[in-house]
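Form 7-S
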Amino acid sequence: MAADAQRFYRFFSCLATCAVSKRRFFPLKFPACIIGIVELTVAAIAILLLIAALVGMIARRLRIPYTVGLVLTGIMLALFSFIPQISLTRDLLFTVLLPPLIFEATLFIRWKELRHNLPVILVFAVIGVILSAILTMTGMYFLAGWEWQSAALFGILIAATDPVSVIATFKEAGVQGRLRLLVEAESLFNDATAAIGFSVVLALAGGQIVTVGNVIGSTAWTIFGGLFIGAAIAGIILLFTHNTSDHLIELTLSTVAAYGSFLIAEQFHASGVLSTLTAGILIGNFGLPISYSDKGRASLVDFWEFAAFISNSLIFLLIGIRQAAEIYAGALWPVIVAIFLVTFGRAAAIYSLSALFNKSKLKIELNHRHILFWGGLRGALALALALGLPPEIPRRAQIVTAAFGVVAFSIFAQGLTITPLLRRLKEINK
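Output:
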């Protein structure tokens, strides 16, 4: 799995560098840039990108969500036995595909708006995730008959909304303003809560001794370490960027910021998501208006939209291919229970926590509460965590199957109905 991620990372790095350099940049220290990448893997990537482009064109004509079209296409590819030499793993997602999505999304978040809505976002991202996880865990224990360890692991890994799914869906639907900020920012921040909770529960399930002091220390480092590393990387990159007007160098430095902040934070066991989020916000708010040239600013927007498109396309195609391998018949009841509990947990968290702000300037409109509830999509992050569970975990296979069942419901049921819901609530016009 790690080998797949390393090969794909080298390919994506080469692709990104070639895209911005137009062969005028200094030679990289990669042997022929792609030496060591399996030929079938490169061919599979090229074919998947071609398929993604065609699916995008067809989905637009049929007026269905692009992400739904990609997952359906992935399922069909698997049924026709076209299985690329790439699989959706935690290493691939965290090392290659997630950083550009987070960086692109946060580049255009305005700090003033984020700061104003930060209390709401943090309440949803922390208390909301914990409440959803507890409700799901309790239900899986009593209704599905799972052991506490298995129920707790599933509850926490499925509780957080997935930034990949949420950002892709809301961007495609054309949602703007405070609603989009709340939904996207929550999905970015709540991963830290889920990651901390998941590591604690996994340690307990593995028989390790977990103390309150260890949990507090780990939590503090995960959050503040990620914020510090992201801010430090952004500061260094902005210092370099301020001293150049070459748009190619500006793009290259932004790529270093996106991947460097994420990978360095993960290397030091801090939150890569929070690190890249911090770097993106700082560069977007303090770099784009001041440090970047006019051409660099325009190129940066186009390049990161392109990078996010590639990442989204590959993620949802790989989800579809992996979905086809899941057989739900033997675990139909746990899947049904899981879908109900995850949906109920999300509703309980959103509607109860929104009431806390009823008498403040941060009051959340009822229409926005409905969308926050139904737009809490699950996706690749939950699957990556489930697939990364150690084989000795009780009911591991059922946890993976239930996670895929919830993600399938999220993509097809919620993904196909969120745009009509937005229209009905008059949040979008088209």
